[in-house]
From TrEMBL:
GO molecular function, one term: metal ion binding
Protein name: Cytochrome b561 domain-containing protein
Domain Cytochrome b561 per the UniProt entry, residue ranges: 1-174
InterPro entries reported for this sequence: CYB561D1/2, Cyt_b561/ferric_Rdtase_TM
């Protein structure tokens, strides 16, 4: 028997809220830790906020998985169901890795960071891809258009990706704006002395030329005076 449309819609909402919203937002939040002005208090708050978002995402994804096992035909003969099954296992592995976080400076910190980062990125990307396959399955199962939902989801992911990539550049652009506002004063101070030096250099030859002219004028006058006498 075909599952009720309400169960399909609920499964889609749970999957979007977990894989399509909370998990990407949690990644954007943890990205803020790379900023230079991140103090200890802000660092701790961002880590806790990241953990809360990821745990909510895992719980909602698990609820969506339980709903699909109870209400849908799970023959696992399509990519959406296969990817979904792999994601349900991967997110719980990621949770266990997250709780086993070593302290900073410890021996296994680098290996843990690489593993946590790579697995988290793969889970997020596969989750986003699986939402698109789920929308395609929804359109096929219900004969309803999913074009609007595809557009809205693409717009949301694009905005999150833009913010993820731009937040570090924004601080850089702000610094560039401050530098461009303060730098013009220093070159002007450096140029003015050069101009003054040029004036001094130009004045000195003119003074020398005037003194030479006066000298020759005086000598000519003396010669004429001697000739007359």
């Amino acid at each position: 028997a075909s599952p009720p449309i309400s169960d399909i819609v609920l499964h889609g909402i749970l999957s979007w809220a977990s894989m399509g919203f909370l998990m990407p937002v949690g990644i954007v939040v943890i990205r803020m830790l790379n900023k230079e002005d991140c103090g200890q208090r802000k660092l701790r708050l961002l880590i806790y906020f990241h953990a809360i978002l990821q745990m909510l995402a895992v719980l909602l994804a698990t609820a969506g998985g339980v709903l699909s096992l109870k209400s849908f035909e799970n023959s696992f003969n399509n990519s959406h169901q296969r990817i979904g099954l792999a994601l349900y296992g991967a997110i719980w592995v990621q949770v266990l890795i997250g709780f086993r976080r070593p302290k900073r400076g410890s021996k296994g910190r680098s290996a843990w960071y690489c593993c946590h980062w790579i697995l988290g990125t793969l889970v997020s990307l596969l989750g986003i891809f699986n939402i698109y396959t789920g929308l395609k399955a929804y359109q096929k199962r219900t004969a309803r258009s999913a074009g609007l939902w595809n557009f809205l989801f693409t717009a949301e992911i694009s905005l999150l990706a833009f913010f993820y990539l731009f937040q570090d550049k924004w601080e850089y652009l702000q610094k560039q704006g401050l530098v461009s506002g303060t730098d013009p004063s220093t070159p002007s101070n450096q140029v003015l002395p050069q101009r003054d030096n040029r004036k001094e250099v130009l004045v000195e030859p003119s003074r020398k030329s005037n003194s030479l002219g006066n000298y020759f004028a005086k000598t000519n006058a003396l010669r004429k005076l001697f000739q007359l006498t």
